[in-house]
Amino acid sequence: MRSARRLRSVRPRRRGGRWVLAITVALLAPLAVALSDTGAPAQAAPNPRGFDFVVNSPEMGPIRSRIFRAKDGNTNRVVYALDGMRAPETHSGWEFDTNVADALTDWNINVVMPVGGMSSFYADWNAPSSFFGAPPTGSSSGSGALNVISEGPGKSYRYAWETFINQHLRWALRDRLGFNPYRNGVFGLSMGGSGALTLAAYHPDQFSFAGSYSGYLNISAPGMREALRLAMIDAGGYNVDSMAPPWGPQWLRMDPFVFAPLLRDHNTRLWISAGSALPAPADGFNGNTVNGMALEALALANTRSFQLRMMSLGANNVTYSFPATGIHAWTYWEAEVHRMIPDLSANIG
Which of 15, 182, 242, 324 has the fewest C-beta atoms lying within 10 Å of its C-beta? Predict the structure, then answer.
């Protein structure tokens, strides 16, 4: 639904703070044990309609993206799909766990799926990830607190994902494939949802549309930094303090709740979604379901806070989608893309 309802002004990090804090405290234990973008893979091999596109980042080295061409061959309509917290170096979850590439290309939209960026939030980090200045040693399994001392992306070098997407990947797509570098779309799940809104807020010439599914959109709320600290330790062993110092300008710049006025002022078309944290019967009841419920409850609290913030600003450039069932799982994010596509199609290119 769309809403232009006006509420009285709210101050950043206050509205909904007690609600977010209570949920965060309840979730710290399960987050420390396992934070994952859950759901059974829809396919176990690369989509044959896609191809690799490698672009060098001065800070990060060669970065691979997967490209899916629009069915009608146009180069004007482009969307970027951002992965979740555990984004591996081998593939994008959007390709392996959903069918959204086929759905988007059938709508004559070109799809760009950057590969990698585990725990990065697709941000430019302050420094390479490390704890107490210790250099990384040994290989990473990608999961668990022991990875704080392991090697991995963003540890021997500094993550610079925002610069890469806005500058290096953007212009390489134009120069080598002829893709339109303006009025693109971007969407993502979980950390990718937060990253999508950040990219759109600060690069409105590149992104006219942004979508967030189960995103963390109020990261300066009480308890959220420590919740993210635990999540990032578990997802690859990353240090949130290396990403941005606490409560400084760099951290606040990453918080959708804080930069919401930019999205309103740019009239960026937004699709904001989170599930109810209630599973459907098809989810069954197991460890993944319980984790997915807990994570979605946190994402829902963040997303509702962001909704209140945008409504208080009088923003009418947002569609909100809050399905009656939905946990932190690929099945639900895939379904949300299908709901979003008509709005995306009408607001890019």
Answer: 324
